[in-house]
């Protein structure tokens, strides 16, 4: 490669196959709950997806994440209990006519998946004043979320499913894993090989909410501005083409 | 493809080339500040990376994001002014001996990059009670961050650099873009083709902070537990191998 004197690597686009592989990971990634297989995850594979997580962007390069792997059945059981309690509370928050649908949804695979990972954020890791966090303190939590998304996409490329369990009381999760009060649990993830990936997000398939048309979510030069119709038409075509390319028939 | 009756797509790992393409996007993604070129971004390319963002995971499938493109010089100028003000305040927060280093760092490319994108979160988009957000209300902001990371990786595959500007007062950013008070600005991004990508994160190259050894960030079955030495050794080898594969010499 060139440009190494300046420490700059060449910036060409990926070739078409490589680019499409990145888009395939993005478009076919799913939040997995019900399809986990018990097959063990090889150490090399788990290591690679953790490296991917660790190379997420982080504010001030603070790398605030910690990855707590959970393989022990008793520990998973404690987390599952915390989920059950929270999920019972959650069901009651929905309008009565939606409660039975809610209860019919499978929302986690804590026990079935061979490995769970709790991704946390240590807000003190780089001291009090952090470049880029001076005005938006939440940036370190956002960095940990970027690590989650890297992990998720890497897992998809490895053929592994990931499910993010967010129906948990944070303090009960802390208690189940002995996480100190100063550490923020950002994501509790279930990982494993899967029987298959759903062709669309499950809540979309269940008719809970529709996929929004992307062109309705784009503004320009300010909240009340809109891009020109040519661009919006390109967006509509792009959304249709990418959905098609990564559908069962695509 | 098979399994379409159940709506399940096959779950094999990607082949090696495709898998490595995903890892290449992850490992060579950079936070770009100083290398933007003025070349315009074709509509098709910008559309694809927005589709990638839109296919991020979102809590309760609420898709809470909006993308405000900024191309207008005057609008960019207002955001840049907000950055300058915040950055001046930020410099003074560091210990005196670090202030000159801080001031020497280039921390944004707002004006030079052809397109800026403000990614926001509309917390009300799916009503008050959202599946998965009942116990951790911040989940919708996290969903918007996942969209940012998808966009960033897609951009890398397209040969586009992205820089996340977080040294901004949120209310001044809102004012510059007429964003309503109920909408949360999550990320202000600068996008464009680049002269090259740095071989390592700039703060690492500048000696601000080192890359942490990943094995030190992994725990097991609880905060005080550690995975066995075999696994940690595999992690060390994986981190070294992936860094090497995506280095200038790799």
Quick overview:
The structure is a homodimer of 250-residue chains. With 250 residues, the first copy, chain A, is an alpha+beta fold.
What is the class of the largest domain in chain A in the CATH system? Alpha Beta
Taking Cα atoms only, what radius of gyration of chain A do you get, to the nearest Å? 20 Å
Oligomer: homodimer
Give, in order, the helices and strands of chain A. EHHEHHEHEHEEHEH
Helix run count of chain A: 8
Shape of chain A: globular
**Shape-level CATH architecture of the largest domain in chain A:** 3-Layer(aba) Sandwich
Biggest sheet, spatial arrangement of strands of chain A: 2-3-5-4
Give the biggest beta sheet of chain A.
4 strands, antiparallel
Distance between the termini of chain A: 35 Å
Helix content class of chain A: 40-55%
Strand content of chain A: 15-25%
Domain module tally of chain A: 2
Number of strands of chain A: 7
Low-confidence parts of chain A lasting 5 or more residues at pLDDT below 50?
Answer: 1-5
Structure description:
Two copies of one chain form a homodimer. By secondary structure, chain A is α+β, with helices and mostly antiparallel strands. Chain A folds into two domains: 30-207, NADH Oxidase; 212-238, no CATH class. Helices cover 40% and strands 15% of the residues of chain A. The first copy, chain A, has helices at residues 16-28, 43-54, 73-91, 96-104, 139-157, 170-177, 202-205, 229-245; strands spanning 8-9, 65-70, 115-122, 160-165, 183-193, 197-198, 218-220. Chain A has a four-stranded antiparallel β-sheet, with helices on both faces. The longest helix of chain A has 19 residues, at 73-91. Chain A starts with 7 loop residues before the first strand and ends in a 5-residue tail after the last helix. At the A-B interface, strand 1, helix 1, helix 2, strand 2 and helix 3 of A face strand 1, helix 1, helix 2, strand 2 and helix 3 of B. Strand 7 of chain A pairs parallel with strand 2 of chain B, so a sheet runs across the interface.
């Amino acid at each position: 490669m060139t440009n190494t004197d300046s420490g700059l690597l060449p910036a060409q686009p990926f070739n078409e196959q490589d680019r499409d592989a990145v888009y395939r990971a993005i478009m076919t990634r799913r939040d997995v709950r019900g399809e986990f297989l018990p097959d063990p995850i090889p150490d090399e594979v788990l290591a690679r997806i953790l490296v991917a997580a660790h190379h997420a962007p982080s504010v001030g390069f603070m790398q605030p994440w910690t990855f707590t792997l959970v393989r022990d059945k008793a520990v998973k059981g404690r987390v599952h209990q915390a989920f059950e309690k929270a999920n019972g509370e959650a069901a009651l928050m929905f309008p009565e006519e939606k409660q039975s649908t809610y209860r019919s949804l499978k929302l986690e695979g804590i026990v079935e998946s061979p490995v769970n990972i709790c991704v946390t954020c240590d807000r003190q890791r780089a001291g009090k004043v952090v470049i880029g966090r001076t005005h938006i303190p939440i940036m370190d939590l956002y960095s940990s979320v970027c690590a989650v998304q890297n992990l998720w996409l890497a897992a998809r490329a490895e053929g592994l499913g990931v499910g993010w369990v967010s129906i948990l009381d944070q303090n009960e999760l802390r208690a189940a894993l002995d996480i100190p009060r100063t550490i923020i649990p950002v994501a509790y993830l279930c990982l494993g090989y899967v029987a298959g990936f759903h062709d669309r997000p499950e809540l979309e398939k269940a008719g809970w909410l529709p996929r929004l048309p992307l062109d309705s979510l784009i503004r320009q030069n300010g909240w009340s501005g809109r891009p020109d119709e040519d661009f919006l038409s390109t967006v509509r075509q792009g959304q249709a083409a990418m959905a098609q390319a990564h559908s069962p028939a695509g």
